[in-house]
Automatic annotation (TrEMBL):
GO terms for biological process: phosphorelay signal transduction system. Keywords: Membrane, Transferase, Transmembrane, Transmembrane helix. It comes from Arcicella aurantiaca. GO terms for molecular function: phosphotransferase activity, for other substituted phosphate groups. Belongs to the bacterial sugar transferase family. InterPro entries: Bact_transf (IPR003362), CheY-like_superfamily (IPR011006), Sig_transdc_resp-reg_receiver (IPR001789). Residues 17-130 form the Response regulatory domain. It holds the Pfam family Bac_transf. It comes from the Bacteria. The chain crosses the membrane at residues 159-180. Signal peptide: none annotated. The keyword Transmembrane applies. This is Lipopolysaccharide/colanic/teichoic acid biosynthesis glycosyltransferase.
Length: 395
């Protein structure tokens, strides 16, 4: 098989692994002289041996085969098999003609190089193949995540438990609705768009706990805050300081149907969080404080569970602007698990009385649940939820 031995895939430490199908000793030597320090090269002397080799070995990053080695026929065979259909294949030839270029494209070859590689950049092309493969694998993973299927046992528990709960709690729900109406003006139920399993967008239901003029109230209060006033003066037409200097947004974010400056949005969000972190939020109604601390405000989500928008146990559905920030390879897996009323991070952190928890910690726990959820795991979280229901702080 190998005529020269600097090139075994198993022995080299190079990251780009290629198979060179070549029986010309001089051509092999020249190839190794040119690329031996940049690539991990396996030399195989025939197309038939190469096919047999890749059947029993983890596929390389690319196969380089000459036209005179039966490269076009080899290409047809590789593309006909599902397990090698996407394997990058480079054809080499002593002479490159328009007809050969057309034929290689028709047979779905990935590239065509002169046999001596006097033109083109082989290493750059191989690096592109690796990036393309990673991108395709990522897209496939995202596609699988977007097709999240809720197990029958989980859906059955959701329907039966929430069905009985809604019947049993209906008098309490009616009383709470009346008290909300008497306590303040506005609708009984608050609706908010959330992103659940597989990036499904739906409207989540909660009992209203804030005044209807909450946004205007906090805006007016923010104007009295010196820090908010100082930073607001630095913003020009919704842009952050850096973008304002250039006159155009450098980092856009799609939020509530509008394009906003992401830096300005995050700065404003940080200001609001810093300003509103006090014991008695004036936006919350008198009765709303009780509803929040007792978690009764979340009871209308039983309807969401019954209708299949989310599950009883799972990862908390996120607001649109937060979900938009978690579409990278590192975070997307948290959406592979069912959305839920209560979940792992709620019982692990809040249940232990910890007041602070980073977003990174929440995401890690969400990913852990998405990977490991089962009937036994769900039951454990369910029974751990009760001690975590009552919060100690009025925020």
């Amino acid at each position: 098989m190998d005529t020269i031995k600097p090139s075994d895939l198993e022995q080299n430490s190079f990251t780009i692994k290629v198979i060179l199908v070549e029986n010309d000793h001089l051509a092999t030597v020249n190839f190794l002289k040119k690329f031996g320090e940049k690539l991990s090269v396996k030399v195989i002397e025939s197309a038939e041996e190469c096919l047999e080799f890749i059947k029993n070995t983890y596929p390389p990053d690319a196969i380089i085969i000459g036209r005179n080695m039966g490269g076009l026929k080899f290409l047809e065979t590789v593309r006909a098999e599902s397990w090698t259909r996407t394997l990058p294949v480079i054809i080499t030839s002593d002479q490159i003609t328009q007809g050969l270029i057309k034929e290689v494209l028709e047979k779905k070859g990935d590239d065509l190089f002169p046999k001596d590689f006097s033109e083109g950049d082989l290493v750059t092309r191989l690096e592109y193949f690796i990036k393309r493969r990673h991108y395709e694998a990522t897209q496939q993973a995202k596609s699988n995540i977007l097709a999240v299927k809720i197990p029958l046992w989980k859906r059955s528990i959701d329907v039966l438990s929430t069905g009985f709960a809604l019947l049993f709690l209906s008098p309490i729900l009616a009383i709470v609705a009346i008290l909300i109406k008497l306590d303040s003006k506005g609708p009984v139920v608050y609706k908010s768009r959330r992103v659940g399993a597989g990036y499904k967008v739906f409207e989540i239901y909660k009992f209203r706990t804030m005044r209807t003029d909450a946004d205007q109230l906090i805006k007016n209060m923010g104007d009295l805050n010196m820090y908010t006033k100082e930073t607001a003066e630095k913003k020009i037409e919704g842009l952050c300081e850096d973008c304002a200097m250039k006159g155009v947004c450098q980092q856009q974010l799609f939020f509530d149907g509008e394009v906003v400056c992401e830096k300005a949005y995050l700065a404003e969000k940080k200001e609001k969080v810093a300003f509103m972190k006090f014991q008695n939020d004036p936006r919350i109604t008198k009765f709303g404080g009780f509803l929040r601390n007792s978690s009764i405000d979340e009871l209308p989500q039983l309807f969401n569970i019954f209708m299949g928008d989310m599950s009883l146990i799972g990862n908390r559905p996120l607001p649109l602007y937060e979900a938009e920030k978690l579409t990278t390879d590192k975070y997307i897996e948290r959406f592979a698990g069912p959305g839920g009323l209560t979940g792992l991070w709620q019982v692990t952190k809040r249940g232990k009385g910890k007041k602070e928890m980073t977003e990174e910690e929440r995401i890690e726990l969400d990913i852990e649940y998405a990977r490991n959820f089962s009937f036994k795991y769900d039951m454990k979280i369910f029974f751990m939820t009760f001690p975590a229901l009552l919060q100690s702080e009025n925020v």
